UniProtKB/TrEMBL annotation:
It comes from the Bacteria. A motif ('KMSKS' region) lies at residues 195-199. The keyword Kinase does not apply. ATP binds at Q9, P10, S11, G18, N19, G147, D148, D149, I186, K195, M196, S197, K198, S199. The gene is trpS. Homodimer. Catalyzes the attachment of tryptophan to tRNA(Trp). Belongs to the class-I aminoacyl-tRNA synthetase family. This is Tryptophan--tRNA ligase. Signal peptide: none annotated. Keywords: Aminoacyl-tRNA synthetase, ATP-binding, Cytoplasm, Ligase, Nucleotide-binding, Protein biosynthesis. It holds the Pfam family tRNA-synt_1b. GO terms for molecular function: ligase activity. It comes from Microbacterium gilvum. It catalyses: tRNA(Trp) + L-tryptophan + ATP = L-tryptophyl-tRNA(Trp) + AMP + diphosphate + H(+).
Amino acid sequence: KARLYSGMQPSADSLQIGNYIGALLQWRDMQDTYDAFFSVVDLHALTQPNDPAELREKTRRTAAQYIAAGIEPSKSTLYVQSHVRAHAELAWILSTITGFGEAGRMTQFKDKSQRYGSDQTNVGLFTYPILMAADILLYQTHVVPVGDDQKQHVELTRDLAERFNARYGETFRVPQPVIQSETARIYDLQNPTAKMSKSAESHAGVLWLLDDVDVTAKKIMRAVTDNEGVVAYDRETKPGVSNLLTIYAALTGRQIPSIEDEYAGRGYGDFKKGLRDVVVAEFEPVRTRALELLDDPAELDRLLAVNAGKAESVADATLQDVYDRVGLLRRA
Ligand code: ATP
Ligand code: MG
């Protein structure tokens, strides 16, 4: 089986519906075809303002939601990044073959550092893509499913793998990004031209997997639309309605035209009620299962430890090879 690697930051108590549609549903389907590694990337999360107790809790909650959404810890290697030390160690080695200018060209860094200002921008934010490259390369990954915002980071990962291989001999597999399609991209319900994010400043337009159903229902009924009153897909002129159609289609497996037909001549109220029922029905069992898992943190931690062991054995083999190739003296 080809190897797959992907991860998510534990940056909120709950995942949002974009993570569910754009990542978890696809990962769930891919875990049978691939030898899949899914990581809760807590080391990456340290680049954001951090409360230690909250980070621990968010890490567990993120893992619980992966499982609740159908990632099976007996099938896929679902683990916590910091449990495998090789990530930080390989990131250091890779940083020594990364150009300063090369890292500075990463648009995510440019955006974030501009937003935060130089005093609030930590060096970890700058080296973030190098840690991500280490995540991927440690597992000799074939494919990396990511959103298009991460495409540049996977390109850097490929460049670093090729550079290392050319300099020190074949060591890393050069991974391929699998970019999620536009139809799997979800936008904020209140601001439907901005991507929905866990770390969005306002939560009014974010649908959280773990929210109470009535909160979710209200947010859907209040979603921004337009004055046309026609349920039709057009991302340019009707971003709000198009986004709701995308969610509807993704969760039901239906085609958008068939949904447009069903709601032809019926107005947005009916359409939103229909969507509300779809989302609530989808979220309810996931939420229940996640909360059950979180009720027994010791059992969850045990599962994560078993999977960390599986990840570690693969990662350590790659790291030892790297250490030998760059000329680090083996401890006797
Ligand atoms: P943050 O605000 O902390 O960056 P996020 O919601 O953007 O959080 P990530 O941890 O960056 O989530 O990404 C996790 C996964 O979810 C990635 O595979 C990413 O492509 C996917 N994803 C995130 N937001 C969306 C979205 N709005 N639509 C579809 N997929 C998404
Ligand atoms: Mg993100």
